[in-house]
Each structure stands twice: as structure tokens, then as C-alpha cells.
Amino acid sequence: MRDVPLPLRVSGKRGFVRRSKGDLAEKISRVAGRKISYVDLPPAEFKKAVLSAGTPEWSTEALLDLQRFYREGNASLVTDDVERLVGRKPITFDQFARDYAFAFRNEEKVAS
After folding, report:
1. Is residue 94 within 8 Å of residue 21, measured between CB atoms?
2. Number of structural domains, the chain?
3. How far apart are CA 26 and CA 38, in angstroms?
4. Do residues 93 and 35 lie in contact, with contact meaning Cβ atoms separated by under 8 Å?
5. d(CA 31, CA 100)
6. Is residue 40 part of a domain?
7. With 90 as the cut, is the pLDDT of residue 108 above it?
8. Helix and strand element counts for the chain (H, E)
9. What range defines the domain where residue 64 resides?
10. pTM for this entry
């Protein structure tokens, strides 16, 4: 990476992108070759499911914080910061889904 002056400033191109989680699940479904659905669990059910998968309590709490961050719409701001930092445009979600389709093809149930 190039030298970046600190503190990092938020500047450059900015905008908001709204994508539903259902739309993202559909994109993953197409590349995985199987139906993948997004299920919006209430925080207590999400915590139970993550803990039942063997995730440590501290990590579960961090995932709950991240879920709350997304649910409150705090991840919809898009900037050109990644492009400025790494010197290239970031990949699209579609490209991410194609690159990691193999990870979504496994039908094993992770949490119950």
C-alpha cells in the first residue's frame, strides 16, 4: 500500500447505496447454483444461533454489534477511500459472489 497520511480523512466521492439483503442473497444464489435466503433474526435469536455454532461469547457479542450497525443503516455510505488507499477500484458485490461461489455451494447447515 501507498503511504497514507494519518489521521485518515473521509473525503472524495461519497454517496449512499441501498441493497436489500434479499437482493444480495439472490445474487449469491445465482452463482452458487442453489437457493440461499436471508433470514432477519431478532438479536436474541441471532445470538442463540451463533452461540449454538460454537462461537465464543466475546465474538458473538461483536457480531451482534455488527448486526446492529448494519440494521441501523450505518453501512450504506460509500466513499472512494478504498480506491484512493489501494490505487484501484474495489470489486463489485457481483464479482465477490463469483470469486467466492465455491464457499456458498456447501449445503451444510452451520447453525440451528
Report:
1. no
2. 1
3. 9
4. no
5. 9
6. yes
7. no
8. 6, 2
9. 14-104
10. 0.66
